[in-house]
Amino acid sequence: xxxxxxxxxxxxxxxxxxxxxxxxxxxxxxxxxxxxxxxxxxxxxxxxxxxxxxxxxxxxxxxxxxxxxxxxxxxxxxxxxxxxxxxxxxxxxxxxxxxxxxxxxxxxxxxxxxxxxxxxxxxxxxxxxxxxxxxxxxxxxxxxxxxxxxxxxxxxxxxxxxxxxxxxxxxxxxxxxxxxxxxxxxxxxxxxxxxxxxxxxxxxxxxxxxxxxxxxxxxxxxxxxxxxxxxxxxxxxxxxxxxxxxxxxxxxxxxxxxxxxxxxxxxxxxxxxxxxxxxxxxxxxxxxxxxxxxxxxx
Length: 298
Hints:
Layout: E1 18-21, E2 31-38, E3 52-55, E4 61-68, E5 71-73, E6 87-88, E7 92-95, E8 102-106, E9 111-117, H1 119-126, E10 137-139, H2 146-157, H3 161-179, H4 190-203, H5 210-221, H6 225-242, H7 251-258, H8 263-274, H9 278-287, H10 292-297
Antiparallel strand pairs: 1-2, 2-9, 3-8, 4-7, 4-9, 5-6, 5-8, 7-10
Helix pairs in contact: 2-3, 4-5, 4-6, 6-7, 6-8
């Protein structure tokens, strides 16, 4: 049985077409998802506030493409960020994990595609240290080698998004298999992934002290284990909230089931990760176009 949406409005499509592709099983420990969104032919008729995009803090790294239009990553916290001129995202860019919520402002029309990568996979495939890229982005060509640049160009030139996703997966599959052939297929929640990192760190290398394990985790994932566990709890709480559909949410039960100390702990962490209290976030998911990434994830 299909899980009902958290609000009636979520049962309707986003106002702009949004698609999400989950990775083929062999890439599930490498790729979290690919997301594409287009406002071509739609955006010029929108009010200004619909051009914003709200994203939660995330341990994921990303490679983004703008086939049309552009977006500016805004400075500061919402709502003050709305007045920021922001920094223009390159047409093809690499971005690291974010330990805080972020907001961008899109051009009236645009078409973008975002590849979301597990940070330890980025470290294994490229040698980059995700910790050096927290809250940062740069043109792909200035970060990664010629083969990745060729992928960037091929994705831009492809005829449609399905072809783009196939190009990405065909590029990653042999490289990931050569780097991590022992990784078993199957989708993971962030909490399970973080626990797996902790186990790897505890049994890797010559030194096995807690401090050495923490250093390994941060080198693989870019963020300390405490933050990774917080993001994992937040994801669990998000999916548990969605599962309640249109019914009132028993926030104390959600907090307990997701591993929070109490409801106040849930509220504090949700604000830190998304910028909003749980109830307000749920309402905005139902009514605000700029929260489209939450709706597609639900």
